[in-house]
Amino acid sequence: MENEVLSIILGGGQGTRLFPLTEQRSKPAVQFGGKYRLIDVPISNCINSDLRRIFILTQFNSASLNFHISSTYQLDTFSGGFIYTLSAEQRPDRTEWYRGTADAVRKNLYHFTTSAENYKYYLILSGDQLYRMNFRKFHNEHLKSGAELSLGILPVSRERAGDLGILQIDEKGFITKFVEKPGATADISELKIPDAYRKAHNIPAEKEYLASMGIYFFNRDTLEELLASDKDDFGHDIIPNCIGKLKVSSYLHQDYWEDIGTIKSFYEANLDLASPVPAFNMYDAGSPLYTRRLDLPPSKINQCTINNSITSEGSIISGAFIQNSLIGIRTIIREGASLEGVLCMGADFYETAKQIEQNAKEGIPNVGIGSGSIIKGTIIDKNARIGRNCRIGIDQLKRKDGDYSQYMIRDGIIVLRKNAVLKDGTSI
Asked: Counting Cβ atoms within 10 Å, is residue 65 exposed (0-12), middle (13-18) or buried (19+)?
């Protein structure tokens, strides 16, 4: 199987809904879970499914993502596997950027079709979703169905259905109708899950619809023929136009899946990882998540109270109270600090004694969180400098979204920018 399938991971667009986390990096390069990046999820799913021939298509803010991939995923020569990034490029026959997900694949077909491997199937994946899936099982179901195209699908409530591609299926699981992002008010009752299908798969009553996960298995000839058209996006153009013309099957996924598309969903998905029984299990030894090896020392915890939280490698936390929070790598939290509902991404470096002395001369805080600071309901991007006795988000007010220089407010959540500097006593 592994020699017949080429996996293509889409590196995402500008990621405007995750701004300012995507101000200096692409969406798949955004950190999650304390030590990982979003791109690690689809790559890990591929590796765990014995799919080791992977292309990653990138375009916006791709330097951080490219470095992470090249320094992390170096497959041995005996496996015949590879993980390559293909950045958007200009060529004599084209000068424009990608116009959509399908156009990104189209513009790189040359690289896929000139490979020495004789691929029979293309697996198309998103680089910014959180889930765990065995693609080997998906592929087997695709083969058994005799379909030309298969979609990964999951049951969703009407509340979630508005922002996803919603589909209708027959009794054999073949897709008969597809509506891309119908919105919150459209009448889509005709697309509800058939009772027989619901009972056969034990789907909860509150999940009334089936949504596309943005994961596609194509027969090679089918995809290359479809890309010969001028359609630029899989969800808006390619998939809807296939219904009724091709044999399109479905693969039901009833485990955790989250499209990390907004600041709110990103924040909530990360903090849930620190709950006693998280929806997404990072501790599955049979299906591990891979990421860049950092060789950091263990975290050092001195006289702290920590509840329902995750602390990542290389952190030093002294005399702090931390609750329902996620602490990233190399985070320095000083005496008397209090964090509740905080996603802290950590730091890229440790400061030396000389650098700390220079900070004092310049009147700027050290990297990390200063003594006596109280922070609630906040995302802290990397390398932030938070001074002593700061007060961030503690009044639980409904804040107006906007850009406030060192921080932004998105979906009512305070987001400190990467390299942000908050001097002693700052209140937000």
From this structure: buried
